[in-house]
Specification:
The protein is α+β, with helices and mostly antiparallel strands. It has 13 helices and 18 strands.
C-alpha cells in the first residue's frame, strides 16, 4: 500500500467519524472508539466467509466432547484465529435502544456518551408492564438537556419522539433551582405511564413549580431550598386535576413536534451556458476554476423531457424554455447557501405554507429537499412560561428625569465657579 492509498483510506475512515460520531463522542475521543472498532470489524470481515463452517465444526466438536478445539476451528476459519460466536459485528445491537418505530425498522435511540440520562429512561420504559390493568408509572428527575438537546433525527430527539408518539408522557414538572445538593442547575421531574386515563390521552401537561420553595435555615452545598409539604400537595393536585392555570399548561402531543427541512439554492456562475446540462465532473471543474455568483446563471444538473415529470418549483423542479421547447430542469445546489428551517407540526399550511410565507418572499430561487426532511421533538418551558418584564410607563420615566434635574440643579454652576 502506497502513501496515497493509505491517506485515502485514513481520510475515508475519519470522514465516517465526522458523519457518525459527531455530537456522540468528543472529537478528541474518536480514536478511543474508531480505532478498536476498525480492528474488530477487519477481523470480523476476514472470518465472515467461513463463519458457517466454524459454527458447524464447533457444534460437532461439542457434541463429541472434544476439549482441545483450537486447531480444528482455526483450520475451518483458514486463519491463525477464529470466532465461534454466532454473531458478527453488524448483528450486535441493543434491542432497548434500536427498535421499530413509524416506518423505520431500525429506529436508533443512542445519545451522546456525555449525556446518558435519556438512555436510563428508555431502559425503564423497556421494562414497563403492558398487560396489567394499571400498567406502569415512571417518575425520573432530569436536568434541562433532556427537553431540547439533539438535532432532528438524532438520538435524543428520537427518544422524545418515541415517548410522545406512543403517548407515554403524562407531565413534566419544573423544580426550583438549587433543589439538589451541590448543583444549581434547573431540574425537572418526568412523569410517564403506559395507561393514561382517557381525559389525558394525546396530551402532555407542563407544570412550572420553579417558584414554589421554602429556604433552608442552613445551606447544604448549593442546596438552599426545598419544597414544603403544601407545595408537594399543590403539585399533586395539579397533576390529578389536569386543568390549565398559571402554573399548569396542557398541550396536544403534536405541539412539541417539528419538521426540519433543508432549503437549497442554485449554484450560479457567470458566463456559462444556460441551456445545457452539466455532468458531475464538469460541475466539479466549474467549482474549482470559477467564483460563484448569486446573480449569475444557475447550473443545470438534469433536464427532463416535457411530460416525464411535473414542474414543482417548491421541490426544485422548474419549467423553462430551452431551444424553443418547454422542459423541466433541476439545478445543482450551492452548498454554501444551504440552510435549514424548523416547521412546527401544527404550522398552518404545513411545510409548504411555511415555505411560501417565511422563505420565498426573501429568496425566490429556493426550494425544499423532501428526502432530507427530519422529524424532531423538543419541549421548551421558557417558551410556554416566559413572563416578559413589565416596561416602565412614560410617566414614571419622566418623573425620574425631573427628580434628577432637581437633584443636580446648581451643581454645574458650583463646579464652574470653583474652577475660576
Amino acid at each position: 500500500m502506497n502513501y496515497i492509498q493509505h491517506s485515502s483510506i485514513a481520510n475515508f475512515i475519519w470522514g465516517i467519524a465526522d458523519d457518525v460520531l459527531r455530537d456522540v463522542y468528543v472529537r478528541g475521543k474518536y480514536r478511543d472508539v474508531i480505532l478498536p472498532m476498525t480492528v474488530i470489524r477487519r477481523l470480523d470481515a476476514l472470518l465472515e466467509p467461513t463463519k458457517k463452517e466454524v459454527l458447524d465444526m464447533k457444534k460437532q466438536l461439542d457434541k463429541s466432547k472434544v476439549a482441545n478445539q483450537d486447531a480444528a476451528l482455526c483450520q475451518c476459519a483458514r486463519q491463525a484465529f477464529y470466532n465461534s460466536s454466532p454473531f458478527t459485528l453488524r448483528d450486535l445491537k441493543d434491542a432497548r435502544f434500536i427498535t421499530q418505530h413509524g416506518d423505520d425498522p431500525e429506529y436508533k435511540m443512542i445519545t451522546r456518551s456525555s449525556d446518558g440520562q435519556l438512555l436510563f429512561l428508555v431502559n425503564k420504559l423497556s421494562k414497563m408492564k403492558h398487560r396489567s390493568k394499571l400498567g406502569s408509572r415512571i417518575a425520573e428527575v432530569h436536568n434541562g438537556s433532556s427537553l431540547f438537546t439533539g438535532d432532528a433525527g438524532g438520538g435524543e430527539t428520537n427518544i422524545r419522539r418515541w415517548i410522545i408518539e406512543n403517548d407515554w408522557l403524562e407531565a413534566i414538572i419544573a423544580l426550583p433551582e438549587n433543589t439538589f445538593y451541590n448543583t444549581g442547575i434547573a431540574t425537572y421531574i418526568w412523569l410517564l405511564t403506559n395507561k393514561k386515563p382517557s381525559h389525558k390521552k394525546g396530551q402532555v401537561q407542563l407544570i412550572d413549580a420553579s417558584g414554589w420553595y421554602v429556604p433552608l435555615r442552613k445551606n447544604l452545598g448549593k442546596k438552599n431550598c426545598q419544597l414544603s409539604e403544601q407545595h408537594i400537595q399543590d403539585i399533586c393536585n395539579l397533576v390529578i386535576e389536569f386543568k390549565p392555570s398559571e402554573q399548569s399548561k396542557i398541550f396536544s402531543n403534536e405541539a412539541f413536534g417539528y419538521q426540519k427541512i433543508t432549503v437549497e439554492r442554485p449554484l450560479c456562475f457567470r458566463g456559462i451556458d444556460p441551456e445545457r446540462e452539466y455532468k458531475a465532473k464538469e460541475i466539479k471543474e466549474l467549482k474549482v476554476n470559477n467564483k460563484t455568483d448569486e446573480n449569475g446563471i444557475p447550473v443545470i444538473k438534469k433536464i427532463h423531457p416535457k411530460g416525464k415529470v411535473e414542474a414543482n418549483p417548491l421541490y426544485g423542479i422548474y419549467e423553462v424554455e430551452i431551444k424553443g421547447k418547454k422542459v423541466c430542469v433541476e439545478y445543482e445546489p450551492d452548498t454554501d447557501l444551504r440552510d435549514t428551517e424548523q416547521v412546527l407540526l401544527l404550522e398552518e399550511g404545513g411545510i409548504e405554507g411555511f415555505f411560501k410565507r417565511e422563505v420565498l418572499p426573501y429568496v425566490l430561487d429556493a426550494w425544499i429537499v423532501p428526502s432530507k426532511t427530519q422529524l424532531g421533538y423538543e419541549i421548551s418551558f421558557t417558551k410556554h412560561f416566559y413572563k416578559p418584564t413589565q416596561l416602565r410607563t412614560l410617566e414614571e420615566i419622566q418623573k425620574d428625569i425631573f427628580a434628577l434635574e432637581e437633584e443636580t440643579e446648581g451643581i454645574l454652576e458650583d463646579i464652574v465657579e470653583e474652577s475660576k
